[in-house]
Design goal:
The chain has 179 residues and is of the alpha+beta class. 27% of the residues lie in helices and 43% in strands. The protein has two helices and ten strands, in the order ββββαββββββα. It has helices at 36-41, 137-178; strands at residues 3-4, 8-9, 21-22, 25-35, 49-62, 65-66, 69-70, 75-88, 93-106, 118-131. The strands form three sheets. A six-stranded antiparallel β-sheet has the order 1-4-5-8-9-10. Strands 2-3 form a two-stranded antiparallel sheet. Strands 6-7 form a two-stranded antiparallel sheet. The longest helix is centred in the last third of the chain and has 42 residues, at 137-178.
Length: 179
């Protein structure tokens, strides 16, 4: 999810004009989710509430002032991670709440690699909405299992009914013999 931070200011050196605007950036990351509910309770497509952890990486775009000239060309790396919760309130509608950290920095050079590369750390609180566009393969598999169980149960019940009918016929035959 993109984030845009307000500039933070460094310590004043006695003169307000010497403060530097810092950490004005936007990030674009791709996150992977690990569902704690599914790991502990098993997969259930009818579950409304989900708790998960996430981590990811992507690009950080710097908008910091540099000598009164805005440098829009700086592209660096961004890493993020945290914990989140989502609530499904319709067939495909979800609200989510996340708390995490993101770390942004300059693009690593061959000399420094990751030394002093990741230097902007932000706490992030997200409240949002997402829409699911269709049935997933996992949902289809669970539906197929439910259908199979229903057919198996139907077959078992038919077998029981047939056994009971045979017992009734046998008891009637026994009654006729006793008469």
């Amino acid at each position: 999810f993109p984030t845009f931070g307000e500039p933070r200011y460094g310590a004043a050196s006695g003169n307000e004009k010497h403060q530097k605007a810092m950490d004005r950036h936007a990030t674009l990351t791709l996150d992977m989710l690990f569902s704690l509910n599914n790991a502990i309770l098993g997969y259930d497509p009818d579950r409304r509430f989900s708790l998960y952890i996430f981590a990811g990486g992507g690009l950080a775009f710097s908008f910091n002032d540099s000598a009164s000239v805005v440098d829009f060309g700086k592209v660096g790396i961004a890493l993020d991670g945290g914990i989140g919760a989502s609530y499904r309130f319709g067939e495909s509608h979800h609200l989510f709440l996340e708390y995490g950290y993101d770390i942004n920095g300059d693009a690593p050079s061959p000399k420094t690699f990751f030394k002093n590369t990741l230097h902007h750390t932000n706490r992030i609180f997200r409240l949002g909405y997402y829409y699911c566009f269709g049935v997933t393969a996992a949902d289809q598999a669970v539906a197929a299992q439910k259908a199979m169980l229903t057919q198996e149960n139907f077959g078992a019940l038919n077998t029981q009914v047939n056994n009971l009918e045979n017992q009734v016929v046998a008891s009637r035959n026994n009654e006729k013999k006793l008469e």
